[in-house]
User: Fold Nit6803 family nitriliase from Gluconacetobacter johannae.
Amino acid sequence: MNRMIRAAAAQIAPVFDETGLGTVGKICRTIADAAQQGVQIIVFPETIVPYYPYFSFIRPAFRMGAEHLALYDRAAVVPGPVTEMVGAAARAAGMVVVLGVNERDGGTLYNTQLVFDATGELILKRRKITPTYHERMVWGQGDGAGLRVVDSAAGRIGALACWEHYNPLARYALMTQHEEIHCAQFPGSLVGQVFADQMEVTIRHHALESGCFVINATGWLSDGQIADIAGDPALEGPLRGGCFTAIVSPEGKLLAEPRCEGEGLVIADLDFGLIAKRKRMMDSVGHYARPELLSLLHDRRPARTVHYPDDPPEGVEPDSLQDRT
Assistant:
């Protein structure tokens, strides 16, 4: 209860290169820089590797084929070079790392969140359960197997991406597993100030309801990047604003000045005693719950297109991360 750790939320811009590994290199450098400041857990923005598909927000589907295929070429395979590079950086820094990637699995892309322990081990791979609006033309759907809280060197970690936070049952699934640190990721540089305002309300409410810390990271685009993506000054407006990188306490308080412009880290010390202080008064999955009236059915089986005779029986947890995800 009296444990303290130092956390960081990173607001950074992607690197648009031919391989997608330029962004990964930038992430690894950011991890090393954060380690110099005593950071023990860091959260990066939604699908920052290689970049969020901003093109899908400003182009009709029939005009985004080339950009979609380019994202396929640069997307991460898990496990693969991206997980090796980031895992090595996490291990060298002794830091828990939460990273958003575009994951390619066969012929489908997924919005995927990766959690690396301080040893560099990949301890969670989860996919966004429902891509939002324009994103449905880019990514496939995840499943309930990824709605999982994992133990790490920094504490019990849960994660959701962007508007998954507007699915109260998804959030509740993580609450029931007693997350201590919730890692939220949004794209940033999208929609305008209203997006940042909504984001603040969302993450502060989850901190209060779950009785946990929330580390939220949003991406950032420079003026030059916005111009390149838009290709037309009339399309640049939707790619500005919407950044709110912040860290919130279980009491719903901002623990550091949020970052709404530019690149940089938001850093704060997390006092785990605040979790018990909040839950003593309101534990939404304990003494404040009414399970005989309201309960949640959570199907944690991975979605599969084929089932084999040697698959584990229903209700039996698989042994490996590969089986889990």
